[in-house]
Amino acid sequence: MNYPKIEAKEYLARVNALRKKMAEKNVDVVIGFSNLLEIGIVRYYCGFAPVNESSAIVIPADGAVTVCSGQASYDYCLVQNSLPQSRIAILPEIGEVSGFEYDTEGQLDFAELFAQVKAEHPGIKRIGFIGRLIFPSIIMKKLEKVFPDADIVDFDDVHYEQRIIKSAAEIECLKTNWEMVSEMFTNVVPKIEVGMTERHIEGMFEAEMMRLGAESYVQSFAPMVATGPKNSYISMCRNTLRKIEESEIINLAAGVCYEGYNGITCSPLVLGAIPQKIKDAVSCAYEALNYASAKMAPGTPCDVVLNAYTDYLTKYGYIDYCPYGSLHSTGMLECEAPIFSVANKRVIEENMAICIDAYFKGMEWGSFRIEDCYLIGANGAKRMTTYNDKALPKIFKF
Predict the structure, then answer these.
(1) Cβ density class 315-349: b for 16+ within 10 Å, e for less
(2) Which 8-state DSSP code applies to residue 166?
(3) How does DSSP assign 12-67, residue by residue?
(4) Could you tell me which residues come within 8 angstroms of residue 121 by beta carbon, excluding any fewer than 6 positions away?
(5) Which of 41, 33, 45 is nearest to 70 (CA)?
(6) Measured distance CA(371)–CA(359) in Å, rounded
(7) pLDDT tops 80 at residue 99
(8) How do residues 321-378 score in pLDDT, each as one tens digit?
(9) What's the CA gap between 48 and 93, in Å, rounded?
(10) Rounded to whole angstroms, how far apart are CA atoms 53 and 76?
(11) What does the pLDDT average to over 56-65?
(12) Which domains does the chain have, with CATH numbers?
């Protein structure tokens, strides 16, 4: 298995690409904020992702970029920040959320940092911010106070559009990630036994991903093992001490993070005799996923793919158990913007990394999801997480 990395020159290229968009939109400076739910905003431009704190980045139209760390992660930032010619600031507003106070030499607050930016770049009239759902009011208020006459505009869409087409280096990191996910499922699932608890199985997945060289589990949820008719109904969950039984649905959802890039597989499992109703539903979901994903190709509007999926379920009588057909970008988040929907009809492009899943919910015996990651090439989509394609026909005998 290869272990590629994002090099310093790529971070600089990303900053320069953002600056080009800033110039097009007459934005003088951009402030990005990351917390542990959206750790990728800051990491995308510099490689730094804190452990137990938030982070921020200040990107002016020219000159030095400031990478912002809390007190506890400062030493880690010194090691992980890979953006050439950037500087690091220590700011308590992005420190540990309990407000733990450190007596750290050289720290300043965001009002002081913004005042420095204002002095170094006089004439700032328009400021973009990234992180609309998480940007803290305490930082925004200080930004407004230091720049009372500036327009402050949402720059989220610009940022996420920049992330959607993957570079060659990103694709290499994702390939390693997808290989880890596939091998993890291949190695763990055959070891699952009746009587194990959901949390026991979660631990098996985590141990295996670490053995393979993952950085962590997928951002930002641990492996989910939802079992039986009641627990499997829950889309996102924390695992319980429930013990799995024979002939019941087991919904496995696990992924890994490698070099900040994420991949996932979701897969149903039944131990022992498999009821025919479960076989039929899993077979339909698997075929629907293959039918829809075969239509993913550069230049194809996403509604063609999504409508193909729902049309297939309608034809075979499962549409009432389909809460949605999901098609989304993946990368520094397992599920990241922009979303693909029937309404927005986004066009699929080469070098996109996309997850597509078949989610069947609310049958009397339970619910399950089949999800895989795909890379869009010049001639179509390639399924990059390989476990489902190899294992499901064998397990469910279709």
Answers:
(1) eeebeebbeebbbbbbbbbbbbeeebbeeeebebe
(2) P
(3) HHHHHHHHHHHHHTT--EEEEEE-SSSTHHHHHHHS---SSS-EEEEEESSS--EE
(4) 28, 29, 60, 61, 62, 63
(5) 33
(6) 8
(7) no
(8) 999 878 999 999 999 988 899 999 999 999 999 999 999 999 999 999 999 999 999 9
(9) 17
(10) 11
(11) 97
(12) 8-163 (3.40.350.10), 165-396 (3.90.230.10)
- One-character DSSP codes across 94-128: GS-TT------TT---HHHHHHHHHHHSTT--EEE
Length of the chain: 398
pTM (predicted TM-score): 0.94
Helices (H), 147-275: 156-164, 168-188, 198-212, 228-231
In the block, tokens 């609310």 appear at 362
Amino acid identity of residue 20, one-letter, is K
Structure tokens at 142: 């200080």
Omega within 30 of 0 (cis) for the link into 338: yes
Token readout for 222 is 């641990």
Helix (H) or strand (E) holding 280: helix 276-293
